[in-house]
Amino acid sequence: MFSGIVEEMARVVSVRHEGGNQHFTLTCSFVDELKIDQSVAHNGVCLTVVSIEGNTYTVTAMQETLLRSNLGLLNVGDLVNVERSMLMNGRLDGHIVQGHVDQTARCVDMRDADGSTYFTFEYDGSKEMIERGYFTVDKGSVTVNGVSLTVCEPTSNRFTVAIIPYTREVTNFCNMQVGSVVNIEFDILGKYIARLQSLTR
Questions:
Q1: Going by fewer Cβ within 10 Å, which terminus of the chain is more open, N or C?
Q2: What is the per-residue pLDDT across 128-169, written as a single tens digit (0 to 9) for each?
């Protein structure tokens, strides 16, 4: 379980293919605090640490994960938002994030907000997806590349978020541009409500 408060950006130092899997080796400041089997969110995707060597660690993404996320687009040198699992002994600063990315979205617009920046994302908003709880609501929560954000201007297949300068500086929103592909995780509460409604029809 995560909060969507990104700790820092890790840098990809190696990508290795093995069958339908991809092994990503990354480096960041807290490698020496990691342990094998520990969960770390990468652009919002919960992955397990499988090896640690020096100042790098490796995680593995299976084919299903690669199909639903932007991890398959990663190259050596890319920056990835990382967050270790939430400690259950303090404040929840973001919102409840499972690290189970639902799908990708594409940035279709960026505009200035007097110092901050509005980013608009478009995703597959089919009727079937909406019925499964894959939608956004005004002032609701959404996770974009592992960052907990508040939705504004939602439509059936788009939403906008406002990024303050600090968030843009310390996450890979610093490299975001129109056309960038991001991972999104919709609010788990909406998914449960949608599932309940489907069972009681």
A1: C
A2: 888 888 899 999 999 999 999 999 999 999 999 999 999 999
